[in-house]
Amino acid sequence: MSALLRFVAVIAAALGVADAVRPVEVRQQEFVIASTGSRFMLLGVDYQPGGQAGYKPQEGSDALTDGDVCLRDAIVMQNLGVNTIRVYNIDPSLNHDKCASIFNAAGIYILMDVNSPFGGESIDRSNPSSSYHVGYLERVFRVVEAFKGFPNTLGFFAANEVMNDVGTSADNPPYIRAVQRDLKQYIANHAERTIPVGYSAADVREILQDSWEYLQCAIDGDQNDQTRSDFFGLNSYSWCGGDATFDTSGYDDLVTMFSNTTVPVFFSEYGCNEVKPRVFDEVQALYGPQMTVLSGGLVYEYSQEEADYGLVVIHSDRTVNLRTDFDNLESQYSQLNITLIESANGTATSLQAPTCSDDLITNSAFSKSFDIPSQPDGVADMIRNGVSNPQIGKLVEVTATSLPMKVYGTNGNEVNFQLKILSDESANTPGNNDGGSDANTGNGGDEGGSDRLRMTPAVLLGTILAVVLTLL
Ligand SMILES: *[C@@H]1O[C@H](CO)[C@@H](O)[C@H](O)[C@H]1NC(C)=O
Ligand SMILES: *[C@@H]1O[C@H](CO)[C@@H](O)[C@H](O)[C@H]1NC(C)=O
Ligand SMILES: *[C@@H]1O[C@H](CO)[C@@H](O)[C@H](O)[C@H]1NC(C)=O
């Protein structure tokens, strides 16, 4: 009987794992929750603890390998109101199941960069043709294997800031489209759903419009052109301080530029730090009625690193202190009407991507070549048959809801945040988990506690099955 019970428990647990956010897809210029049709606006934070140096595959660790660290940070971010993180570098041979599952349980999606700072693991902007080879693409495909199985994988960045000045816009654009094509073909053959693929652009205004036009257009007007971007991320730092406005920040120019975009556009990084602490007034503009053409954005960045953009400080003993920036961002998020924002869906219909042509490109230095490099030897085989022995990520059960390390608020008091496991397949929203704000410790346990007792239909079914079998 105990073996039988164990068996039933395993089944119940497996069913329980089905608790997951609903996958997001691209429709016209919006991200949309596929099964409900409601618009998905990114309320994001860039997540790179330890900075680029925090990527230590030689020691078996990257930003998503330590379940305790992820639990701590997912709890903190859930309280902040975040629904998306961007992760810059992962080693696809490592196991990310715990971390991805924890963020999933918190209602937080992951935007994943497929590259790394190591040689041979990204397109070299100074010599793109030499870096576009089968070894590089094998890494890229392994990242797909590692994250394709998680419902909260929102998309893959094929490249980040490969064009970072006018000069680098001459040769690189066709290679960005080539990597996008290869990724999309691999996903089409080896993933169970279409996972969006796009680009993250530096805010170099001389080439910004060209970059977006170049990457969204359809070669020969083919709307199914696989080399196109599915989305366009912009790393934007033009709104600085509490005196800035929609007009002085240049947000007005961005809205004009992207007004008829055929792919979702969002800030893949934002949050100028010239005025400190940051007050994040741009949040009201970004999610307000003037900017509905954009799909939100991700604040740079979660942890305090040398560049001084942190929302929190992570100490060497792994305790965390929230910074004033965290409180200010939380307060901005809490003023948003999420119902209103999410209902702004379906505003675009029958958008056609413009046909690629020289006319779309305005800067004389920018590439006008829509002749996309063909796949290096061996790549087509890999796309057909899959990479050998991939590490395929899959959801695991999440049960722990308490902070595994101490977290202190800006007032110095320990906070009492708990993970609220979202059982209704929803994304996290500001105010979803208000438990234990740093000014008001102590009420966080209530929600977390009742939540631990939740019964999803699947778990309930498993439990009934267990009882019936026990009686037999
Ligand atoms: C907009 O979202 C709602 C749910 O929030 C859905 O019922 C409706 O069908 C969606 N509209 C479109 C055009 O997708
Ligand atoms: C938020 O927007 C919805 C939909 O427009 C509206 O019904 C609701 O009253 C708004 N809530 C607040 C607090 O303004
Ligand atoms: C919209 O896109 C078309 C090309 O598809 C372009 O000619 C037009 O100028 C764009 N409008 C704006 C306001 O950018």
Automatic annotation (TrEMBL):
One of its GO terms (biological process) is fungal-type cell wall (1->3)-beta-D-glucan biosynthetic process. SUPFAM superfamilies: (Trans)glycosidases. It holds the Pfam family Glyco_hydro_72. Residues 425-451 are annotated as: Disordered. Keywords: Glycoprotein, GPI-anchor, Lipoprotein, Membrane, Signal, Transferase. One of its GO terms (cellular component) is side of membrane. The keyword Plastid does not apply. It is found in: Cell membrane. Belongs to the glycosyl hydrolase 72 family. This is 1,3-beta-glucanosyltransferase. It comes from Pseudovirgaria hyperparasitica. The lineage of its organism: Eukaryota, Fungi, Dikarya, Ascomycota, Pezizomycotina.
